[in-house]
Amino acid sequence: MTMMNPYPIPSNDPARSAIVDAMALTERRNDPFFGYVTQMVRQILGTPIAFISLFSGDRQTMLRIDGYELEGTPREQSLCSFTVAARETIVLPDTHADPRSVRHPIVTEVGVRFSASTPVITSRGFCLGTVCGIDLAPRSMPTPDQVAMLELLARMVARFYELPIEPDPDQAATLRKIADDAQREFLDLVGHEMRTPLNGIHGMAQLLEPQNEEEEEVVGAILSSSEHLSAVVSSILQFTELSSGDIGLMESRVDLDRLVDKVMGPFQRLARIQGKTLRRIGTASQITLTGDAAKLELALACLLTNCLNHGGREIVIDAARHEDGSAMIGVTDNGPGITPGFEARVWEAFGVGNTVRTRRADGIGLGLPLSRKIVELHGGELHLLRPENGMTALLRLPPWRVQG
């Protein structure tokens, strides 16, 4: 089993990276303005090291760094990856005391013990990187005024990014197109994956008038599924930056066992109606996560919907803790699996190739792109595995999200 990324991935990461590349900011790295900013960060926080970073693809590039010699790092070696995904200031007074950082390469290999980073977000809502101060020794928590000053510097940097020395109409048009495409692609994804089945559910409920207990169960399944999916879709739309296609997290403590049971309930009734079985094995009663419950419910609901629409007659959910400390949810069905040659296309909603608007409606894995984005935003992974008979969608959440 492959190792997971030690950082969460923003849902709009391809478009966000394209914006960074299109703005060609590294060509301006010698501008004195960036040096003024890093000097102010060191004075505000009292840290020996301060930098301004850009994130594109799997790379962090230092636009400016003071107190250390470094041009850039792999993204997995940057604590600022968490800030880019969260789109909010993250302060770690002691990296050894936080589950996100205690085993992080920059901590174990370089010895970083303090980090205070704030996102640099453009007027269109894209987080391009961070303004950050770090130390090789633990420090006390900055005051609210210090944090506010750091965030003000980040807003100044974002404004500076968007004011090129020489106006470039072609570049401006390119940036607008990337942003518009990201917004349109996200809205299409949500509409295609969620609103279509919701409309079908509502239509069925309107046509059916239960005459006996069996029909009452059918109507109950339809209504409970409709209510559940409406709630999670509302949560997605409420906490989404529609101008950039980025999805935000409303994090809290999540009981994994209750989450699985809550999502399973409506789908078990739908499975019975379709002549299928949905059962659960394993136990997650001792697993508590930090995450967005509504969006994790949505990810699991998409996987179950995919099984009901395209999978076999037997569906099994397995929730457990892996030996590496990660939390896993597996959804397996005994259907035909993915058509050979189609494997890569099931993830293409935000990538190259076919867009949501041109994908086949009867293809396999209609909810997989959205599920994967939600899981990656939590720092996890979603894989498709081929057991001897059928297909397994394996959702893994990293150890630093598991509390108990």
Walk me through this protein's architecture:
- By secondary structure, this protein is an alpha+beta fold.
- The chain has two domains: 13-166, Beta-Lactamase (2-Layer Sandwich), CATH 3.30.450.40; 185-401, Histidine kinase-like ATPase, C-terminal domain (Heat Shock Protein 90), CATH 3.30.565.10.
- The chain contains ten helices and 15 strands.
- Strands 3-2-1-6-5-4 form a six-stranded antiparallel sheet, with helices on both faces. A five-stranded mixed sheet has the order 10-12-13-15-14. A two-stranded antiparallel ribbon has the order 7-8.
- A hairpin with a 2-residue loop joins strand 1 and strand 2 (59-66).
- It is elongated.
- The model is unreliable at 349-366 (pLDDT under 50).
Strand-helix topology:
Blueprint: H1 13-23, H2 32-45, E1 49-56, E2 59-66, E3 72-74, H3 80-86, E4 90-92, H4 105-110, E5 114-121, E6 127-135, H5 144-161, H6 169-207, H7 213-238, E7 240-241, E8 246-247, E9 252-255, H8 256-273, E10 277-281, E11 288-291, H9 293-310, E12 314-321, E13 327-333, H10 368-377, E14 381-385, E15 391-397
Parallel strand pairs: 10-12
Antiparallel strand pairs: 1-2, 1-6, 2-3, 4-5, 5-6, 7-8, 9-11, 12-13, 13-15, 14-15
